[in-house]
Amino acid sequence: MLIDSHCHLASHKFPAAEVPELLEHAATAGVTQMISLATCLEDIPKNLAIAKENPQVKVCLGIHPCDVHHAPDQATDLIATYLDDTNVVGIGETGLDYFHPAPDGWSDETFRQRQRNFLESHFVIAKRFSLPVVIHTRDQIGSQSFEDALAIYQRHADHVRAIFHCFISTRENAERVITLGGMVSFGGVATFKSATDVLTVASALPQGTFLLETDSPYLAPMPHRGKRNEPAFVKHTAEHIAAARGESLTEISEYTSKAAQYFFPRLTQ
Description:
The chain is of the alpha/beta class. The chain has nine helices and eight strands.
């Protein structure tokens, strides 16, 4: 049993007509559950419709940091109207993205402050509905987005668990997240020959502290790098990390699935 803890089945890169085939591929690869994340308000109905028709799919709802300038100020209040749906297992994808330049009409600082405000508001509704938060961070250089996101998480950690997805930072930073009660997740980057540091971190963390993901349709793992990613490919990442840890595919599948069920309690409801 494998769980793809982070994918985007409502992406425009996945035509709706292809979704049943993608789910078949996933089942063949041993992927029994997938969590599809909304990144804007327009994504929400599409994700919920997929989950309603496919019980192996659950969803998280949020505003991606690169979309906060399109979202209304009350976006998280609108998200909250959907959170009683049992197919919703978390809040996200939210977070801080300092990699991309600010859009026209915004300075870097005003755009980043809006991202921070949105991340804070995602934590507020997560506490209200007892849901975990899925966080994106990305920088051109350094790790300021991670530091700022971790500081916001720290203010809410007594009430909300958070996961830093597609984790590519250091073991020390992973342990800072874990110490707060959070987790990290690893995707296809861990299989890249150019990203041995990520694999080293994934190899060192204790069982139960990390999840596996695809972030599909993005960041396909080897041997599919450069192609459109899909949930079935989480098996490649699982095999790669398991080999580095001296574990079997069965073993890593079992404990990462249990960790996903712990992190997203509604998965088992």
